[in-house]
Specification:
alpha+beta, 3-stranded antiparallel β-sheet, elongated
């Protein structure tokens, strides 16, 4: 990706030894700053658009998975009880101006201190940050809702469903949420891994057990 390439070049330039031609370093830094500003603004705009497209899909998937729990919707205002997401840039205003403002700090730290690589996706549940204030079960449900939403958006945009991979999906879900997840699995090929017994509502076409590095087919309904 253009941003990754520019960041590598810019970081290498910032790590130039103190004896290097300072004027030449600054002139070259101007070039990489212009390229990072152009590529970074484009990437951030695409990320913002993607986030806005995913918000209603994630919120809907979460309500389906959580049901009537405290943050499952339950007919209340989704903005107050459901999932919300916001893309947070690490800078304000035009990126080229922001890079110019922190150039001295970047040279001191020999690192690019702002840009799309420093941006973040903020996810809240009922107004609370999911990362720090949600329970493990809530975090797991939000993560699953995000995965289902991405699958749904990809299917709508590409016209065909991709393979859905869900790793150790039932370990932190109670029986009700596990059943809700199974009911929400989209049409298409889905691969589930789990370290615990799957809920009774699961009717897989094929079950493969992994033990001590060996694979063994337990059941095949294909």
């Amino acid at each position: 990706h253009d941003v990754e390439r520019v960041l590598r070049q810019r970081s290498a330039l910032l790590r130039q030894p103190s004896g290097a031609d300072h004027g030449a370093v600054l002139r070259t830094l101007d070039v990489w700053d212009d390229r990072l500003a152009a590529a970074g603004e484009s990437l951030a705009a695409a990320r913002q658009e993607l986030t806005e497209s995913l918000v209603p899909l994630v919120s809907g998937a979460y309500r389906q998975l959580a049901g009537d729990g405290p943050f499952g919707g339950g007919g209340e205002d989704p903005a107050a009880t459901g999932v919300a997401m916001a893309y947070r840039r690490s800078w304000s205003g035009p990126l080229d101006q922001a890079l110019a403002a922190v150039r001295h700090e970047d040279l001191r730290r020999q690192a690019t201190t702002l840009g799309p690589h420093r941006d973040d996706l903020e996810i809240t549940l009922g107004g609370r940050p999911v990362r720090s204030q949600a329970s493990q079960g809530e975090q797991r449900t939000v993560a699953l809702a995000l995965r289902l939403a991405i699958h749904q958006l990809h299917t709508a945009e590409q016209g065909h469903p991709p393979v859905l991979l869900l790793d150790d999906v039932f370990s932190e879900l109670d029986a009700r949420r596990a059943a809700a997840l199974v009911a929400q699995l989209p049409t298409g090929q889905t691969l589930l891994t789990t370290a615990v017994d799957p809920p009774e509502v699961v009717s897989p076409d094929r079950v493969v057990e992994v033990a001590a590095g060996r694979l063994s087919a337990v059941g095949d309904r294909s």
